[in-house]
Amino acid sequence: MVAIIDYDAGNIRSVEKALLSLGADAVVTSDPKEILEADHVILPGVGSFGSAMEQLKDRGLVEVIREVARKNTPLLGICLGLQLLFEDSEESPGVEGLGLLRGHIRRLPEGDGRKIPHIGWNDLSYPNQGDLFRGITEGCYVYFVHSYYLEADDPSIVTATCEYGACVHASIQSKHIYACQFHPEKSSTVGLTILKNFLES
Question: Quick check: is 67 catalytic?
Answer without folding.
Answer: no
